[in-house]
Specification:
By secondary structure, this protein is mainly α. It contains five helices and no strands. The two termini are 19 Å apart.
C-alpha cells in the first residue's frame, strides 16, 4: 500500500469516527432527555396521586414523563449538551494543535538534556536518534 492509499483509508476512518462521535452525542442527549422525562413523570404522578406513588396504576414513569415533557425542554437539553460537547472539543483541538511538544507535555513528557549523565536518559536519547536515522 502506498502513501496515497493509506491517506485515503485514514480519511475514511476519520469520517467514520466523526459519525460515531455525533451518534454518541445524540445518544447522550437521548439519555439525558429520558432521565429528565423520568423525573418529570415522577413529579407529575406524585402530584396526581397526592404524593403516594405506591397506589399509582401508571408505573411507566418514563413514558408518562415523555408525553408530558415540553418540546422546549427537549430543545434546551439538546442545546446545552451540544454546546458543552462542542466547547470541550474546540478546547481540546486548540490544545492539540500546538504541536507535538504540547502533546508530549500533556502526557507527562519533558525535554531531555543532550549532555545528560543519567544512564536511562542517555539510552532514551540513543533510541530516539536511531529511530530518527532509520526514518530517514
Amino acid at each position: 500500500m502506498n502513501f496515497f492509499e493509506q491517506q485515503d483509508r485514514a480519511r475514511t476512518r476519520t469520517g467514520l469516527l466523526v459519525l460515531l462521535y455525533a451518534l454518541a452525542v445524540l445518544a447522550l442527549v437521548a439519555a439525558t432527555c429520558a432521565l429528565v422525562a423520568a423525573f418529570f413523570g415522577v413529579s407529575q404522578l406524585s402530584v396526581l396521586e397526592g404524593g403516594d406513588l405506591s397506589q399509582s396504576e401508571d408505573r411507566n414513569l418514563l413514558l408518562s414523563g415523555l408525553e408530558a415533557l415540553p418540546a422546549q425542554t427537549v430543545a434546551g437539553i439538546f442545546a446545552v449538551i451540544t454546546s458543552v460537547v462542542v466547547i470541550a472539543a474546540i478546547y481540546k483541538l486548540q490544545q492539540l494543535s500546538a504541536g507535538g511538544a504540547a502533546v508530549a507535555e500533556a502526557l507527562g513528557g519533558r525535554l531531555l538534556n543532550v549532555h545528560t549523565r543519567d544512564a536511562n536518559e542517555k539510552k532514551l536519547l540513543n533510541v530516539v536518534e536511531e529511530m530518527a536515522i532509520a526514518a530517514g
